[in-house]
Amino acid sequence: MKLVVQVKLLPSSEQAAALEATLRACNRAADHVSRVAYESGTRDRNGLQKLVYADIKAAFGLSAQPAVRVVKKVVDAYSTLAASLKAGRLGRPSSKRCRRAVGSPVGFRPDAAQPFDDRCLSWQLDAQTVSVWTVDGRMRGLRYTGSPDQLRMLAGYRKGESDLVRRAGKWFLIATCEVPDAEVYEPTDWLGVDRGIVNLASTSDGTNYQGRRLGRYRRWQTRKRAELQAKQTRSATRRLARRSRREQRHATHVNHRISKEIVSVAQRTDRGIAIEQLDGIRERVRLRRDQRGTLSSWPFHQLGQHLAYKAKRAGVPFIEVDAAYTSQHCPRCGHTERANRPDRDRFSCRRCGLAGPADHVAGVNVRNRARSAWVFVTAPVPAPA
Questions:
Q1: Crossing angle, helix 246-268 and helix 212-231, to 10 degrees?
Q2: Which of these, 3, 62, 4, lies nearest to 32 by C-alpha position?
Q3: Phi, psi (5° rounding) for residue 166?
Q4: Could you tell me whether strands 271-277 and 318-322 are parallel, antiparallel, or unpaired per DSSP bridges?
């Protein structure tokens, strides 16, 4: 499986200036290549490279391999745009957002990340330095740092490109690592996980990971942002910049902690992990205006991603099941009715009287559906007639 490792670079002021000039030159070249691709309609890498290779080397001061990487970056950007349009992530073709996306060339920020392959960037793992190409020449002995786990993974499994990133005045390298997949065991049972807003995750064992603290933290961050934006001063703008992405980092940390604990419980008890398939929930649900911000910042998708990759890395079976009526279905008698859930927190079956916390019942239903689904997933393929 592919994982990424992020290490922090420790450049001097001269090295930082060279790195910044390199990013800006590469992204100016990418803007030029994007305009040519948009006007000519050329989207394949070889055809586009024939059109722009000589120009971007001469006009932007790029060497041969960085010029090739710039073309590849533009081709990948248009491939991502095409995939988003096909999946409907940009809305209907007639929507303003979709028309704006396809009505102009793809643009690149001056400090957007730039990929480097092993010809442009080499790692000296023992010395904990890198050698990287810049517009001012080859830069050697650029130091980096990271956690012991990151450095071990980098030394053992790094493979492929590395991205040079500048974020909030700091420099990072994001390296791709090919980690071998762990052998998936045959589960003795399943641990159902129901995701929500009030309870970020509820398992079929009855464990709740509440989201009230995260909700309070987000509301506090929203108030602080509003107060700073209302001041409209330079110091308020600087403080807003320092606070940027702080809420996102906090939510990511919470999701990492929850998913790590759930995977460890499943691994310790030889069970698999089952979650609801919640794709397209924003398109299916119509909410009031005051609820839209809560749904948009709800980190359920990221929690599912963390569970999936941590389970795969640990060799824990993982499956997604149909989410329909998991909170209204009685796991004992099978009766499904909206009235089975009189409010958000309680479940009470109108037929057999089974009652309990609604999120716990939903987790049990997810577990039961995983038991049935796993039989079909692992069933042998019938021989052709």
A1: 170
A2: 62
A3: -115, 125
A4: parallel
Query: Hey, what amino acid is at 264?
Result: S
Contact predicate 17/171, CB 8 Å = no
For tokens 């929930």, name the residue.
Answer: 281
Half-sphere exposure of 23 (CA within 13 A, CB side): 20
pTM higher than 0.90 for the full model? no
Angle made by CA atoms 213, 218, 224, in degrees to the nearest 5: 125
- Look at the block and give the residue holding tokens 């998991």: 326
Q: Residue type at 240?
A: L
Q: Among 97, 123, 92, which residue's Cα sits nearest to residue 5?
A: 123
Measure CA of the first residue to CA of the last residue in the chain; give whole Å: 37
Distance between CA atoms of residues 221 and 309, nearest Å: 29
Residue 36: which of 54, 53, 48 has the closest Cα? 48
CA distance 146 to 229: 35
Taking the chain (385 residues) in runs of 10, the rounded mean pLDDT of each run is: 93 96 96 95 92 93 94 95 89 89 93 94 94 94 94 92 92 93 92 88 91 81 88 89 82 92 96 86 60 64 92 94 91 93 91 92 94 77 66
Distance CA 180, CA 159 (A): 12
Nearest CA to 162 out of 220, 114, 214 is that of 114
214 contacts 199 by C-beta, under 8 angstroms: no
Rounded Cα gap, residues 168 and 114, in angstroms = 16
Counted residue by residue, the chain has a size of: 385
